[in-house]
Specification:
The structure is a single chain. This protein has 899 residues and is of the alpha/beta class. The strands form seven sheets. Strands 3-2-6-7-1-8 form a six-stranded parallel sheet, sandwiched between helices. A hairpin with a 4-residue loop joins strand 17 (598-604) and strand 18. The longest helix has 49 residues, at 474-522. It starts with 7 loop residues before the first helix and ends in a 10-residue tail after the last strand.
Length: 899
């Protein structure tokens, strides 16, 4: 029983963890068709390199049963293939993860254009090769010229066979070396006849179809031309790198116009071939959107989306141009971007003709100046697909016809009434009004139908001969022409106005959605909130599920999802990790892990990738307005996530900076504020122990008092440090209760009474005072700290005043002292940690934490604290005193009549 295929969710991280080094080199053995000996020549060259001592490994080689090729594998290290389970079958494929783990110096990977089995990490083998090169492994591979993407249409015309496997031109252009394995068409047909290419029966059929002389000759020319073009590109690059001057043909710039019709993909490939012929000239693929035009149907939108993806694969740049005048918009874009070549398709009828009412190619040829216009005619290899209309448009058209008939019926009733009461009434004007109403309200086709019905009714009922459809006068024909002319004019104008209004509504809705999303994303306080908002906005815009994954612990974590409860399967997580690691769009509709129905886009910010976002692509039409809006939101989300991340980093940096300042100040304070009381306690205790029996009683009492005072000082200091630690660490637990601040002030005054010495405390409390919600313990400690600060900085014999009063919204506590006051320059910083007055004696006053702790406690209870100084005149004419105010908010404001 074959071993199970490797789980992409497990293999992707291992792959992305490969250390980065110099990108591996790629050599392509290019041939005009199967059987020219590409694999044979690659193996011969590999054996020579192995003989030179190089570590050569065969990753995968298809011998097709050819004995000469199989003999060259002897002596080479051939890797076993990996089984991939698909529909209860084990398909043997190239072992990409085994090759990455083996890491040879040179790896042989046959058939560059091969399509991998469903369930593989990449749908194409050339993408496997790119990953190997990214890992620093040199690769040799083989390729037939008919598998080049830009030549698929040409090969189809030459051979009549459409190639299902293709390699984008950019993959071949990125090759470091190309070796053309060439033999004449006659020699190849001889090899075919000898059974060296296919088995005899298959060889006979092939020689009569694909392997005809004229086909092989044309393919041979294509292979040689493409190899020569690559050599020219490498020469140009070599000369440019060395600053060699010269006239470069890259001054040419190519613009390919596509309209979502059947020729779209063919035009893109034509643009790539022109770029090759013009020495890799820059080229872009453009689609013109008319603001007043009808909305593209799902089929056209899908073709445009695929065309833009194909252009990116082939090295082009997708562009969307907006303008009602298509010709003018294209030429303006061409002139602004120095375009010299315009490629356009000419079909039997398409969207371009609908837009302009005339042949776009003819108008471009007539108006273009200084620009070459290349018109590509439509081929007849595939039948044109019927045009389709959206269900909404069809429904609107059919609703218009009964409405037009109703207008004509109403006009008939009015005409019959007027005809019986008045003579010589111009009844045609009434029917003309009905036609105008039908055109204004329902558009062109209902207006034309209403005009025809109005004329027939008018002719039948009111024109001679009455009650007959015969036209009795030539002027009646003019009446019919006028009716139709009015219908055409009003219908076309009304339709255009209606489409413009719808387009304006779509643009306004998109802009409003982007603006609302931007405002919502900007309000995110952290990455998790922003990610959740982004997922919700993207899901609403796309009309499908959305997820946001953010990096955490060297891996991606599903951070947000909309709707909630969305989970990602292992293959989806593997695609998300790949998008994060490589910065590429992965998943549904891409070249990496396309089997999942999610499409993941890396959220690329200004500084780097912020995360990965995923959209359930199976529920979103490719190229639709919803998809474009969702992609625009993801771009905004990337910046918002990066901003939230930067805000978090700034907060963390500020926290670390404050912690460093706190640590430095703490160490500076500890060096004195802990050592001084400890030294005093140690000295007094030592004296009592050594000389206690000989000391006088008053001396012993003084030493014991010093020990108690310094121990209390040390206790207060340690308490302050613990309180500040709680504030800094966010561990403060506020337990609010209805509190009478008068009780708090009395309790705080009692606690500091022993340290007042010769100072006096006065109390000024009203008889009635509203209660507030506060933490009694924290509030009392805050008041105690302020009182101790007042005691420390006011001399003996002065007064400290405690007061309380209230206004409509708060209860205010006022604590005043008659000390030397606070300098005006220090008022803003008086509540900073470790802030003391500048006098050298202030170290005995405390650690400088009391007011900082008081501020932290008050603000934790939603209060405010402020300082004012000076507040009174001193005896010598100077200014003295300081006032600390604490404002605690009321739960319910008091009416002014009750104050």
């Amino acid at each position: 029983m074959p071993e199970p295929a490797p789980d992409p969710a497990k293999t992707t991280p291992a792959t992305s963890a490969v250390p980065r080094r110099k990108r591996g080199r790629l050599k392509v053995f290019l041939g005009m068709s199967p059987g020219v000996g590409k694999t044979y020549e690659m193996l011969r060259a590999a054996r020579r390199r192995k003989a030179e001592g190089l570590d050569v490994v065969v990753g995968v080689v298809e011998t097709h049963g050819r004995k000469e090729t199989m003999s060259l594998l002897r002596g080479l290290d051939v890797m076993p293939r990996a089984p991939i389970d698909h529909r209860d079958r084990a398909l043997m494929e190239f072992d990409l993860d085994g090759a990455l783990a083996r890491r040879p110096e040179l790896l042989l990977v046959d058939e560059y254009a091969h399509s991998n089995a469903p369930g593989s990490r990449h749908p194409k083998r050339w993408q496997d090769v790119e990953e190997l090169r990214d890992a620093g492994i040199d690769v040799w591979t083989t390729l037939n010229i008919q598998h080049l993407e830009s030549l698929s249409d040409v090969v189809l015309r030459i051979t009549g066979v459409r190639q299902r496997e293709a390699v984008p031109d950019s993959a071949l252009t990125g090759a470091d070396d190309i070796e053309v394995v060439d033999i004449t068409p006659e020699d190849l047909r001889a090899r075919l006849a000898e059974g060296k290419v296919y088995v005899p029966e298959t060889a006979r059929v092939a020689s009569e179809n694909f392997f005809k002389i004229e086909n092989l000759t044309a393919l041979r020319e294509l292979a040689l031309r493409r190899a020569a073009q690559t050599v020219d590109d490498q020469l140009l690059l070599h000369l440019r790198e060395r600053g060699v001057s010269g006239p470069w043909a890259a001054n040419e710039r190519i613009l390919v116009l596509v309209g979502g019709d059947a020729m779209t993909a063919s035009l893109v490939r034509t643009g790539r071939r022109m770029s090759d012929m013009m020495m890799d000239a820059p080229w872009s693929v453009a689609h013109v959107e008319r603001p007043s035009g009808s909305r593209a149907d799902a089929r056209s939108a899908g073709r445009l989306s695929e065309a833009f993806k194909l252009a990116e694969q082939l090295g082009g740049r997708p562009v969307t141009i907006s303008g009602d005048d298509v010709v003018r918009a294209v030429l303006d874009h061409a002139h602004r971007n120095n375009v010299t070549q315009i490629v356009i398709g000419k079909t039997g009828g398409g969207r371009f003709s609908e837009w302009t009412g005339r042949a776009l190619a003819t108008e471009l040829l007539r108006k273009a100046q200084g620009v070459a216009v290349h018109v590509v005619t439509e081929g007849d290899l595939t039948a044109p697909e019927p045009a389709s209309k959206s269900g909404v448009r069809a429904a609107l058209d059919w609703r218009g016809y009964p409405a037009g008939a109703a207008f004509v019926l109403a006009a008939t009733g009015a005409a019959l009434l007027l005809d019986t009461r008045f003579e010589r009434v111009d009844l045609g004007v009434i029917y003309l009004a009905a036609v105008v109403a039908a055109g204004v309200l329902n558009g062109l086709r209902p207006a034309l139908a209403a005009a025809t019905l109005a004329f027939l009714t008018y002719n039948f009922l009111f024109l001679q001969p009455r009650y007959s459809f015969l036209i009795g006068s030539p002027t009646d024909v003019l009446t019919l022409i006028v009716f139709w002319g009015v219908a055409l004019g009003t219908g076309a104008l009304a339709g255009r106005v209606r489409e413009q209004a719808r387009a304006a509504q779509r643009r306004a809705a998109a802009v409003s959605a982007l603006l609302a999303a931007s405002q919502t994303l900007s309000a995110g306080q952290d990455r998790a909130t922003t990610a959740r908002t982004l997922a919700e906005q993207a899901s609403a815009a796309a009309g499908a599920g959305a997820v946001v994954l953010l990096p955490e612990d060297d891996d991606l974590t599903l951070t947000a999802a909309s709707p909630e409860g969305v989970t990602l399967a292992p293959d989806a997580m593997a695609a998300a990790r790949w998008a994060w690691t490589h910065g590429e769009v992965t998943g549904h509709g891409t070249g990496t892990l396309p089997q999942t129905h999610w499409r993941f886009q890396p959220l690329q910010g200004v500084r780097g990738r912020a995360g990965v976002a995923g959209i359930d692509a199976s529920a979103v039409a490719a190229g639709s307005d919803e998809e474009r809006l969702a992609m625009a939101l993801l771009d905004q989300g990337a910046v918002a996530l990066e901003r939230a991340d930067l805000a978090g980093q700034a907060l963390e940096t500020e926290t670390l900076r404050r912690a460093d300042r706190f640590r430095a100040a703490l160490m500076n304070s500890v060096s004195h504020d802990l050592r001084t009381p400890l030294s005093t306690v140690l000295g007094s205790a030592t004296t009592l122990i050594d000389y206690g029996a000989t000391l006088k009683p008053e001396v012993r009492d003084d030493l014991l008092l010093s020990i108690r005072e310094e121990a209390e000082r040390l206790s207060r200091y340690v308490g302050d440090l613990l309180d500040m630690t709680r504030l800094e660490g966010g561990g403060l637990n506020v337990r609010t209760d209805w509190t009478d601040v008068r009780d708090i002030l009395n309790a705080a005054a009692d606690r500091v009474s022993r340290r007042l010495s010769q100072r006096k405390v006065t109390r000024d409390f009203p008889a009635q005072l509203s209660m507030v919600e506060a933490d009694p313990g924290l509030l009392e400690q805050a008041v105690v700290n302020i009182l101790e600060n007042a005691i420390a900085y006011s001399p003996d014999g002065t007064t400290i005043e405690l007061a309380a009063y209230e206004d409509r919204g708060a209860v205010v506590i006022s604590i005043e002292d008659e000390g030397r006051g606070i300098p005006t320059a220090e008022l803003e910083r008086v509540f900073d940690k470790f802030r003391r007055m500048e006098a050298s004696t202030d170290r005995a006053k405390g650690a400088g934490l009391g007011l900082a702790i008081a501020k932290g406690f008050v603000e934790a209870m939603r209060g405010r604290i402020a300082a004012a100084s000076p507040i009174q005149d001193g005896p010598d004419g100077g200014k003295l005193g300081a006032r600390i105010l604490i404002s605690l908010p009321k739960s319910i404001a008091t009416h002014r009549d009750l104050l």
